[in-house]
Amino acid sequence: MAMISLVLILLVGGVIAALSERLSSNAPRWVALATIALTLGYLLAVMATMDDLQRLQASTPSDPATWLMHFKSPWIPAFGINLEMALDGISLLMVLLTLFLGAVAVSASWTDVDQHQGFFEANLLWTLAGVLGVFMAVDLLLFFVFWEVMLIPMYFMIAIWGHENRAYAAMKFFIFTQASGLLMLVATLGLVAAHREATGVFSFSYFDLLHTPMSETTAHWLMLGFFIAFVVKLPGFPFHTWLPDAHTQAPTAGSVILAGILLKTGAYGLIRFAVPLFPTAAIEFAPIALFLGVAGILYGAVLAFAQTDFKRLVAYSSVSHMGFILLGVYALNELALQGALMQMIAHGFSTAALFMIAGALQERLHSRDMRQMGGLWQAMPRMGAVAMFFVVASLGLPGLGNFVAEFLVLLGVFQVDRWIAVIAALGLITGAVYSLMLMQRAFHGEPNPRFENLQLNDFGAREMFTMAAMIVALVALGLYPQPILDTTQSSVLGLVEWIAQGVAQ
Amino acid sequence: MTAQQFLALAPILSLSLTVIVLMTQTSIRRNPHLAWWITAVGLLITLWCAEYASGFTQQVTPLFKVDLWGLWFSALLVFAALVSLMLARDAFPAEGHRKEEFYLLLLLATLGAVVLAQACHIASLLLGMELMGIALYAMIAFPKDGSLPLEAAIKYLVLSACASAMLLFGFALVYAATGDLSYAGIGAKVGAAYVQNPVLVMTGSAMVLAGVSFKLSLAPFHMWTPDVYQGAPTTVTSFLATLSKGAMFIALTRFVIDGQLYHYPALLNALAALAMASMLIGNWLALRQTQIKRLLAYSSTAHIGYLLVILISLPQLAEGSQLAPLGRAAVSYYLAAYIVTTLAALSVVHMIGGEDDTDLDAYRGLFWRHPVQAATLSVAMLSLAGIPLTAGFIAKFYVIALSYDAQLWWLLGTLVVGSAIGIYYYLRVIFSMASAAQVTSSAGESQRGWRNPLAILLLLMVLGLGTLPQAFIDLASQF
Fold it and tell me: Is A8 within 8 Å of chain B by CB?
């Protein structure tokens, strides 16, 4: 019940935020912050009362009793569909990341959104609710429902508050994810049909479907349906073309949510569903997935280097970083999986911060074009320093979270295929090239004469506070990643064992 | 006929009685308000009668087979008529229009639709179809001003008459070959007749299929749909889109099931071709429409295509699949979802555009002007696109589950492609409503007190069907 309440708090908070616009234009923002704080507080309170946190030490994917929380109640019994949700270490981390970045997004929208604030914050909270549902649902149809429903408020955020080319970007974003979602729906129904033929039971439950005997061809096709849906969302090469448009056109808070959280649902789906449901097919498919991962890393980096638009550059860098996640998942060993999870969190912080900086620049310069920037450090030293920090974090400076993540992934992949690891490591170099170029073009050099007429305010208290929170998080991840690794370790180990078992059969 | 049989026909009788009462009242003293109330009460009584008649299900004369399924559909159709009637209340300007006649035509068309839903014989099928069709010609041409309604009515009259003639001739040929006019009889004898006289049977059934496809506006027989949807007054469009198509589809379904026509692969292949063409062409042509009624016309072509997939998957399911009992439930659910969603969409169109079809630009900024109406139209569009938590999603879920089980890969693939195309134009409507308003004038938008409650009711029905389908499934499984 606690998990449903988390989603409900956010949904109701969204309605209150929408209505509170009548009080004042600031009210929806405070309501949104309070709602996120309440959700987080509730989650922590529930965790605190749980005396068996030691379950984090032992978790098997197929046994709900070993998960932290599990809830099941009938929804559409005619089809064996339940409101079934469960939480393990991986889900818990993702939920915490979602709530943290949700608060960051509210902060990013504080001055950026200047009309219909109530509806904006409502959409933001509803997106968060959908994402929490995705991270906790273990009924495959419920998962699909959250998966699709979270897109609608996100669509509104881009379509209403986006930049000049928003109609095109919002439509492209929605059609890409929706069309691939249909493939997932067909694959889900196929999996359920296979399970029903084998056992005679109509069930959408993850825990039942894990034990589905099926022929190799069926498994292969169904796996492909899930894989495409998740890789489009990730996004992996060659399905990434929606991402630069959506990220560039979305309002700052929308970009923060998209890059920080929504992309992670794709990675989460791969780890939770695409791999464990079809272990044998996943292993056979791994070489192709690894290739797509490496291609994404290099291709994203090359394209990022060619951009002149600040946000587009960051967007393409995400494609490159997501390649590491794809590598980490399909190396299918503990090290690489841990690295992928770490990358999900670290990339969430660093990219969210970079998008906030891009948004702040757009607000002040009314442009995202780096050719019109230059020498901004002199005008805005605080913003420059913060940008420097996140740029080097993003390129994988040792001591910060992203380095730990990429290093773990490379180490894990090296055990599987050393050439793939060697080529992927090139991504670290190309990453340094485009990241430093971004810094150099925007903040260093001669100040652009254009700025003389503009009032350039440096980061204020609200922005510095938000940035400081993310800086602390990234440093902590980089210097002492052990708590994060501990939280997910049992789930990751369980997953690796599950795959080994599945192949042995 | 026994008393029991009369009771079984209660919905048809109550509708006929309402027609007579209304006609008498109008001939004594004209009063549009009283006429509206008589119609509304008559329809409500018919709804109750449909429930009441469920205690007396039986074959009534060779013409009607009153069963729970047919009664359930009758209730659905009468509900759609009620919503159309509510929209018609302030549809036409008072001067120059005899609205009593409109209500009379609406009742007659509803009667035709209910007859279609319960028919089990070619004679009653044609009777119902013509009753509905002829009333519809007059309804489309009802507005006094403007050339569009007249053009639409003539177009519909000419083409629909052609289709009816084709249907009639086709049935005559089938009758010549089989010597039977009941659904079950034709189904039983047509196989043997084909061996004896293949040309006659093939020509006959092809003509019947073409006639039915025209009435359902399946591609490639869909050409009339956008013009008639656009030209007709919005109340009539909603009637045409829901009742007329729904009743025709029910008749087709009953023909296929009662006659066990699914044993004939040639028919199934023809239906599959029609379904695929409709899904692709309907969605494709809707892409570039800027008038919302034309858009809905093409979208309905696509949706009837999806519905056909259910019908095609029935035979494969008949043989021992666990999903077999779901086939009928799927038709019930899809039709209910389609009818409720279309009514929701068209009720908002009616409020924004009045009788004229307005460009999508008229919907700009609707979210900030009329949030309730905009929310209803958005949810209706999402439902038509098949997004979860709306009725359209469960409907699509049924279709995909059934076609996967029946292993209709080509149809399944077309359905996925068609739905993916469809998202684009449904979203465009929502995008228009969300974008900033160009014009501040809202000249065509009449504000009536009951408009918002009606929109909220339809909105809740679409969401209710989508979020709590179990209650509906339980209800539908009794039939």
Answer: no
Measured in angstroms, the CA of B421 and the nearest CA of chain A are apart by 8
- Within 10 Å of residue B20's Cβ, how many Cβ atoms? 10
Residue A92 in domain: no
B387 touches chain A (CB under 8 A): yes
Instruction: State CA B163 to chain mean position distance.
Output: 17
Q: Which is it for the CA torsion B304, B310, B316, B319, positive or negative?
A: negative
Q: Where are the beta strands (DSSP E) in B244-322?
A: none
In a domain, A414, yes or no: yes
- State mean pLDDT over A47-76: 75
Question: How many CA within 13 A on the CB side of residue A418?
Answer: 0
pLDDT tens sequence across A275-297: 989 988 888 899 999 999 999 99
Torsion-angle region of B182 (φ positive above 0: left; ψ -120 to 50: alpha; else: beta): beta
Question: Are A406 and A428 a contacting pair, CB within 8 Å?
Answer: yes
AA identity, residue A421: A
pLDDT, residue B436, reads 74
Instruction: Answer whether residue B239 is part of any domain.
Output: no
Confirm or reject contact between B437 and chain A (CB < 8 A): no
| Cβ separation A155–B427 shorter than 8 A | yes
ipTM attached to this prediction: 0.86
Q: Does B434 touch chain A (CB under 8 A)?
A: yes
Which stretches in chain B have pLDDT values below 70?
Answer: 94-96, 316-325, 353-358, 437-449, 477-479
* Strand bridging mode A69-76 / A81-87: antiparallel
Residue A83: inside a domain:
no
DSSP state of B168: H
How many inter-chain contacts (A to B, CB under 8 Å) are there?
A: 76
Between positions 38 and 77 of A, the ones with CB within 8 A of B are 74-77
How many Cβ atoms are within 10 Å of A30's Cβ, its own excluded? 15
Q: How far is B477 from chain A (nearest CA, A)?
A: 10
How far is A485 from A490, CA to CA, in rounded Å? 9
**How many separate domains does chain A show?**
1
Whether B43 is covered by a domain: the verdict is no
Structure tokens at A222: 């169904």
For residue range A223-279, list pLDDT tens digits in order.
999 999 999 988 888 888 888 888 888 888 889 999 889 999 999 999 999 998 998
The answer to whether B388 contacts A116, with C-beta atoms less than 8 Å apart, is no
Residues of chain B contacting A179 with CB distance shorter than 8 Å: 416, 419-420, 423
Q: Is residue B362 part of a domain?
A: yes
Q: How far apart are CA A64 and CA A84, in angstroms?
A: 11
> In terms of residue numbers, what domain contains A291?
278-505
Nearest CA-CA partner of A121 in A16, A3, A42, A191: A16
Neighbours of A23 (CB within 10 A): 12
Q: Give contacts of A186 with chain B, Cβ < 8 Å.
A: 400, 404, 412, 416
Average pLDDT over residues A58-63: 71
Percentage with pLDDT > 90 across chain A: 32
Name the one residue in this structure whose structure tokens are 């899809």: B334
Residue B153 maps to a domain? no
| Nearby residues of B447 by Cβ (< 8 Å), 6 or more positions away | none
Average pLDDT over residues A411-421: 90
- How far apart (Å, rounded) are the C-alpha atoms in residues A180 and B416? 9
Structural domain includes residue A344: yes
What is residue B438's predicted lDDT score, i.e. its pLDDT?
Answer: 60
| β-bridge partners, B59 | B65
**Given this model, what pLDDT does residue B470 score?**
85
pLDDT of residue A135: 93
**How many structural domains comprise chain B?**
1
- Distance from CA of residue B221 to its chain's centroid? 16
Helix axes A461-479, A381-394, angle to 10 degrees: 30
pLDDT score recorded for residue B319: 56
Residues A97 and A261: beta-carbon distance below 8 Å: yes
Q: Point out the residue among B389, B405, B470 whose CB comes nearest to the CB of A78.
A: B470
